[in-house]
Amino acid sequence: MFSKMKNIDTAFRHIRGFSMLVIVGCIIICCFTLYKSFKLVAQMQSKVYILANGKALEAFASDRKDNIAVEARDHVKTFHQFFFTLDPDDKVIKSNVTKALYLCDDSAKRIYDDLRENGYYAGIISGNISQSIEIDSISVDINQYPYLFRCYAVQRIIRATSIAHRSLITEGSLRNVSRSDNNPHGFLVERWKTIENKDLKIENRK
Question: Please, which domain of life does this record's source organism belong to (predicted)?
Fold first, then answer.
């Protein structure tokens, strides 16, 4: 009788030990599954799929600090394209300049007012002149704030009888501001000025 009780007690201990191992194993597996699930969800949330021309393109979200230089250069490029892309149409001029002024402080507004008072925009309209700009390069120093930049570009001025190519070098600084529909990059150009603007060549139109 005593031997049977001892065997039952031993068997019970074995079953209890096995049950504990199974429970601990289940807990470990559940914790591992939850960890991997949260990690996978976080990875999926950092991905964005963009539909372009019927194709799904994958993009990854990242902190702004990883893209400051890229966004700063694109902000400077966008500002210059709006400010210097002009056609002989008063509405087009006002629309482009208005978009540019959202991206810069009053230094751009002062230049715009001076050009308007000197009849520059009226001359573009009356002379049927078109003006475009091609950005060669933009350097941005992100090691100090506000971020200093310098833009190298070529202006193309199309007149009825000629096409003029002018070098354009400008510089200024960039300050962080809130993002908006009018300013998607969240930068503001400050103390903007022209360093060089001279003729490179003039082509006669046939």
Answer: Bacteria
